[in-house]
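Now for one record.
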Amino acid sequence: MNGYFQIVNEEMQTSVMLYPAKDGGLELDITEVADYLTFREIEFNLSSLYAAAKDLKNEPAKVFLNLKKGLPEEEMLKVRIAADDMSASVRFYAPSNDGKTMDRAEILNDLKSRGVAFGICEDVLDVFLGNREYCKDYEMALGQERTRGEDARVEYLFNTDTKARPTLQEDGSVDFFHLNTINHCESGEVLARLVPAIPSEPGRTVRGEMIPARETKKAYLRFGKNVELSEDGNELRSKVSGHVTLDGDRVSVSDVLSLEAVNSSTGNIEYSGSVQVSGNVCENYSVHAGGNVVVQGVVEGAVIDAAGDVIIARGMNGMGKGRITAGGNVIAKFFENAQVSAGGYVDSDSILHSRINAMDAVHVGGKRGFITGGHICASNGVSVKNLGSNMGADTIVEVGASPDLKEKIQKMENELLENNKLIRQLHPVLSSATERIRGGGKLPENQFDYVKELYILYRVTKKDIKKTGQKLNELQEILENSRHAAVTVSGNAYAGTRIAIGDVSLMIKGNVSYCRFVRERGEVKMKGM
């Protein structure tokens, strides 16, 4: 119980009884006593109060206030409403020895008169009425928070993470046969569903004022090729068997060209979708795909060009003429005497005498995990187990933003400027023609055809702006990450290897282990792991 006080009215004088705290309660604050007496206009000597409070230990102390018989003082409450109006605390003060206590109705009326009109905690009031404690804060009212609700959303039933990496097995090798980087789907399969919004409920403050409900957002199912909307409008289903992709928020399904091998029986392959090869891609042949290319066998001295990812389960022996160009990531068991250019990352078990260029990062791990010979370039860094060789193979590793990346960003920014300029020029012409038609007017046939062509150009340009903007954001993110690019070696780095970060470089003069190479104060520095 907290320490508290009570006015004592006697025949010839007025006093105050000070009660000490018990059982760990808070000590009596004599300033609170003085404020109460001042509010009640009861004369007192402040020094006497402080002196009595200083000596207040285990027993109550009676302090003389004045030589007047005071008026009866009723039980009193003090209300404090929180700044956000969502709670109110009450502090009760004891009546004088000849004063009255308040009943439930009086307390509730008093709360209402002081602005507390909602959320009274009846159980807390019951506790006070059952055992009155004074100079103690009771949380007497709580407002009702508005419920947040949930916005409507689209639930995609396939993997939307485009940066999926191979699974690392227990022995440290990479499982290139179960990469899960392509989202296969069957005809009629549900690809996405609409999850409806959960409405927000309004709230209320302890003052009784309403807190308006939050407005929830709508969501829409957007789809492209080979996808259809269910009759109830809540699901997207595939119309064909193939693989599903997400472009922005638009779901599409592409057919996949499946081949046993690329050789003399097939000739060179050009396909708008993805290509899967269960065998090998043989020397001197080429595969050009508008999607991903997956080869379960070996790629020999061949050319692979894909707008998406390239995955080679058993690796590539380029024979000095093999080349891979990918808009996305490139994953292979090994690269030997090959050229690779990736718009994303490159992941492999080993790289031997090859030229690798990745917009993102290069990771060489697994059981062997070595880069020996060749030239490796990656904007966001290189991580490898063993780098270089004891035989002194000429090995160069460059990380940080490449001139190609900056040039590509500049080109896209210029393209956006030109397309936005074209949209601004087309908009007033199309608006004027639309208003004329809506107003009942007609356009001459040649003018109508011209406006139709402009409208098609307008739609195509808007689509290009969206696509270019998304790609530009991705490249700018890579550029930002490249500022912290580093070369990480989890095993050995051998003498003779050259590390370049940005425009500064370092030749490793002696074998080192378990280290990172970073750019610091204009130099390439070696740090411990």
The first strand starts at residue 4 and ends at 9.
